[in-house]
Amino acid sequence: MPELPEVEALADHLRRHATGLTIGRIDVAALSVLKTFDPPPTALHGLQVTGANRWGKFLGLEVGDLHLITHLSRAGWLRWSDKLSPLPLKPGKGPIALRVHLGIPGEAPGFDLTEAGTQKRLAVYLVDDPAKVPGIAALGPDALSLNREALCEVLKGNSGRIKTVMTDQKVIAGIGNAYSDEILHVARLSPFATAGKLTDPQLDALHDAMITVLTDAVTRSVGQQAATLKGEKRSGMRVHARTGLPCPVCGDTVREVSFVDKSFQYCATCQTGGKVLADRRMSKLLK
């Protein structure tokens, strides 16, 4: 799933390549991705792109007084092309859900919003105010906007596990499964630590790690072509998606805890005092 650094990089790419261009046509191949219907996508035809923004993991294109906003969810992506095909999209065929032509179709650049897999969760909204998107209206403070005191405040009294709390967009916006693994590893915190019971030194370490990891990832991602962002994200990971490989800090084996539809990775030596966390999926298999 694209998280804060990748979405910020996509927003930067759109600012640099789409701003000033005119929307020639929008093709919708999957009506299910449209979560708003008034105004329709055709309302953007002939209007000029004036900018691009990010709200947590939401990506938005400014077009006049309107905002074309998408949440890429787990398997969605933005695919840029310097010259899009003018042929209409075939509904239900292939991964392309929506196509934006920035100029005369067949003669101009643009982008596709795509989604792989069978679970279709890609969402597109066309609104005159980003706050009209329910997910944006419910967002907590952006992860990179939080100072140490603000982080303490959002975690205060929270009885949830820090891994779960950090990825709750209503608490902190922008962090998902991958970067929460990385942040907790750098902070040397157990994913199962209680969020509201972190000590002052632990809070210091968590805040420092959050800002460092995300800032570094944004720096590495911004300026990359959209097609290379996924590879850039993977190459910078220390523990996430590295199950069975050595921890780059201590050399211990990176371990995994699996759930029904997701998993997370951690280093027992660096984060849990050597304790191996229970893997629910494996526990059920062994019964």
β-strand amount: 15-25%
In one word, what is the shape? elongated
Give the strand order, joined by hyphens, for the main sheet. Answer: 1-6-7-5
For this entry, what is the oligomeric state of its chains?
Answer: single chain
Layout of strands and helices, then pairs:
Elements: H1 4-17, E1 25-28, E2 49-55, E3 58-63, E4 66-71, E5 76-81, E6 96-101, E7 110-115, E8 123-127, H2 134-137, H3 148-155, H4 162-166, H5 177-187, H6 200-221, H7 229-235, E9 254-258, E10 263-267, H8 268-271, H9 280-286
Helix pairs in contact: 1-6, 5-6
Describe the structure.
This protein has 287 residues and is an alpha+beta fold. The protein has two domains: 4-137, N-terminal domain of MutM-like DNA repair proteins; 143-286, Orthogonal Bundle (Helicase, Ruva Protein, domain 3). It has helices at 4-17, 134-137, 148-155, 162-166, 177-187, 200-221, 229-235, 268-271, 280-286; strands at residues 25-28, 49-55, 58-63, 66-71, 76-81, 96-101, 110-115, 123-127, 254-258, 263-267. Helix 1 (4-17) packs parallel to helix 6 (200-221) and helix 5 (177-187) crosses helix 6. The longest helix has 22 residues, at 200-221. GO terms for molecular function: 8-oxo-7,8-dihydroguanine DNA N-glycosylase activity; damaged DNA binding; DNA-(apurinic or apyrimidinic site) endonuclease activity; lyase activity; zinc ion binding.
Features:
287 residues, alpha+beta, N-terminal domain of MutM-like DNA repair proteins, Helicase, Ruva Protein, domain 3, 2 domains, 4-stranded antiparallel sheet, 10 strands
